[in-house]
Specification:
Shape: elongated
Helix content: over 70%
Number of strands: 0
Number of helices: 8
Length: 111
Amino acid sequence: MIKEKIDQFLAAHQAELPEEALTEIRERLEAADDSKFDELNMLQFKNPTTMLIIAFFLGGYGVDRFMLSDTTNAIIKLCTCGGCGIWSIIDLFSAGKRTKEFNMNKLNEIL
């Protein structure tokens, strides 16, 4: 891939991907062909800040877990009212990390 395209992609999605994986992503993008870049441009990443807000307001209902395709845990969280609130508090601190991991998994599916 062209270096300019890689730099633009990483600059645009730096906040949505794990910081420790950015060098690995750059290497994988350099090795990928240009057809993958078209697929990457159509990819919709979840915003970690938005997920934090959703976890704050709707976390007791498991909405944050549903949005990250963690359906089993979302249903359990919904049935236990967020684990009596404890699970909801824990998810507030881990919402950003879980969102970045979800985005990384979506990127790995394409690359």
